[in-house]
Specification:
Blueprint (H helix, E strand, L loop, with lengths): L1 H16 L4 H23 L10 H23 L1 H25 L4 H22 L15 H16 L5 H21 L21
Helix pairs in contact: 1-2, 1-3, 1-4, 2-3, 2-5, 4-5, 4-6, 4-7, 5-6, 6-7
């Protein structure tokens, strides 16, 4: 629930920056928090998705929307703390997504891919709805998908060697979390094409 709440805050904050109304804020909050998990559940056949069977999953993003609606200047001021909490949610979601996909019979590679989808899918939906290039596709943003992929891969390897325990799951989530924090701290980014000829520098965000 904590991870869902923080993801929802990021969606609601983007809606504020895009000057959307309260309904738009709620939509982006719900999509950001639940989109990845819903798509994963649809792919693996876990229907109806958990987000539609547990009212808490649905109400938590609405709570985040109310918070941002009234206190968005204060929330913006603690954005760094929100990003740290977001990194923790990223680590948790990539682990739970991978384990759930494997529990539904998928192979290790597909399970890791769905672990990644669980962690970053909601953010992609959020950015698309807000008419932005998804953050994980932009070279000028710190690594986001890579830490989640590393965490999901660790879980898949632990499953492969029959060594997945609560401690192992926690270690995988912590690894993704720490990698994301390091990327934020040191500005780590994925490399672009070798000897690229494009003169493009950095995308210009809409004001």
């Amino acid at each position: 629930m904590a991870g869902i709440f923080v993801f929802a805050i990021s969606g609601a904050l983007l809606a504020v920056r895009k000057n959307l109304d309260v309904f738009g804020m709620a939509v982006l909050a719900e999509v950001t928090a639940l989109g990845g998990g819903v798509l994963r559940d649809l792919i693996i056949g876990a229907v109806p998705p958990a987000a539609f069977t547990d009212l808490g999953y649905f109400l938590t993003p609405l709570g985040a929307t109310v918070l941002v609606f009234f206190l968005h200047p204060q929330v913006e001021r603690i954005n760094r703390a929100v990003m740290v909490a977001d990194a923790a949610g990223l680590g948790l979601f990539c682990v739970t997504g991978t384990t759930k996909a494997h529990a539904y019979g998928l192979g290790l590679t597909a399970s890791a891919a769905l672990g990644l989808l669980t962690a970053v899918g909601g953010g992609v939906f959020r950015d698309v709805l807000a008419q932005e290039v998804p953050s994980l596709l932009r070279w000028d943003r710190d690594l986001y998908a890579v830490p989640a992929l590393v965490g999901a891969t660790i879980v898949a390897l632990l499953i492969r060697f029959h060594a997945l325990t609560a401690f192992g799951s926690g270690a995988a989530a912590a690894t993704a979390f720490v990698l994301r924090l390091l990327a934020m701290r040191f500005g780590w980014r994925a490399p672009r094409a070798w000897h690229r000829r494009s003169t493009a520098t950095e995308p210009v965000d809409e004001l």
